[in-house]
Structures are given as structure tokens and as C-alpha cells.
Amino acid sequence: MAHHHVEAGPATCQWGYLDAQSKPVIRIKSGDSVTIDTVSGNAAFLPPRDKFNVPQALTDIHKNVQQGPGPHILTGPIYIEGAKPGSVLEVKIQEVKCTTDWGLNTIRPLSGTLPYDFPETRSLPIPLDLEGMVGKLPWGLDLPLSPFFGIMGVAPPPAWGRVSSVMPRAFGGNLDNKELIAGTTLYLPIFTEGGLFTCGDGHGAQGDGEVNVNAIETSLQGTFTLIVRDDLNFAYPRAESNTHYITMGMDPDLDQCAVMALRDMIVLLGEKANLPREDAYTLCSLAADLRVTQTVNGCKGIHMMIEKKLVHPARVH
Question: The whole model's pTM is what?
Fold first, then answer.
């Protein structure tokens, strides 16, 4: 299969939205791999250029690309031949690398999980030691980095038009799921011809919840293998690592997020282990974990995880 490289820049990035009408920046075949460069950073809060490496691509995008309804700079979209509504895009995340020596974390009033508790804006540049793979926090803590893309998604249904990059939905998007590191696989239901995969919102490190709206927001390079799966029929994103299956729920109501992730895990256990619904529900209660993905994106998130070693074909009982 072929390998492609998409650099970040005004010609290859869209700012703040996903849209089924977006023009693809590249067309690839199912099974091809692609290395995608992304950049992150609010123009109002960039760190000093004499101390940090601010990518020229980020400056060029700020000057030449019109921002849509959201804040995220996304690279793409990528058209995958054979992708069509009703099929699923398998996104194998092969490698994720930090590409610059800084990230940002910003507190803003009226934002985050505590919108009224912090009345002043604070933007904190965080130096990144890419050899030691730590972020250097100002009180002396070296925080281990675990880079992942906050946004990986396909285009929304065409009838939705242009949607903000902020709210995650069935097409993926701003999932902010810290489990989706290199070595994991994300599955996204496809809603338009070609799928139109985009990614961005690079995170150097993040806690579950992402409570003040931001992780360590930074520029990343990712390498993905993109495979069209006509044998799968998911209505909502799923993922898996070497050790776990992961289901997801997104909704403004966190309780409803939990319901969605749990229901999909019950379906998954029926598919993978032929478990009746009652037994799957029992196993979820005994061994699966509900985790808060994020509480700040309008549609909040819950993901449910279960170890693969516990998922065995059911025996009659």
C-alpha cells in the first residue's frame, strides 16, 4: 500500500469546522498510510518566538485561513476511495509525535467545568522536553507526556452543513479521549462519500475530564493507516487498544453519555462473545470501567473500557 504525507499549511488546513462539502486535500486508497502534520495555538496567546519554536505554518494559517465557528485548526480532509455512507473507517494510529518545544494551557472565564470560579484569563506556555518526554510545569513538576489527537473525525452528514469543531458527535471530532494514543485503533461511522478524515487539536498530556477546557495544546505529527470496512456497521465511534475494547457516549447530559457508552458495550459484548444482554450487562457491572472523557465540549463524554482478556465466547449455562 502507498504512503502519503500531508503537511500543515493554509492549503491543507480548515479552521474550526467539519463539513461534508469540504474539498479534499488528498485522495488515498483504502489501506494506505498517511503522515499528517498538525499545528495548534491561539494567535493571541503564542509564546515568545525568541524562546520557543513557533511553526511558520501556524503563523501562515493565522494570516491566511478564515476561522469557522470553532477554535481548532484541522489538517485535511482526506478522501478515502471506497468510503461511503453506512461503512466504517478503521483508523489505525501508528505513531504520534510532538513536533515543537512548547504547548499551551489556557483558563478562560465562563469556560470549563468551573466557568464562574476563575474570573481572569490565564494562558500558560509549557516548555516541552522532547528527549525526556515531559512538560515542564512552572511549580517544578515534570509531567510525563502522552501525546494524542483531541480531534479525529470524518465529515458529518451532508444535511448538517458546516458544524463547529467543538462538539463531538457520531462522526467523532473533538473526542478528547486520552486513550487514543499510538497503537490504538479508532472506528468511525461514515456519513458521506470518501469519508473526509481530518485530525488536529494535538495534546501533549491530558487528564480525564480536561476540566479547564485545555490539555497541553501542541503541534503533533501522526501516522495513520485508513481502512474502509464494509463488514462493520457502527452507529457511533468505538476504539480498541492491545488490551481493551472502548465504547463512547457524547451528550450535553453526562448521565446520558454513560447510558450511551454502556448500551454500546452491551452490544459489543454480544458481538465479540455472543453474550446475551443480561450476561453482558452483568459483566459490565463486574469488570468494565466508565470513565469521564471530557466535561467541557458542549457534548460531554464518557467512555467505557473492558479488558479483552475478559471477553470470551459464551458457554451455555
Answer: 0.96
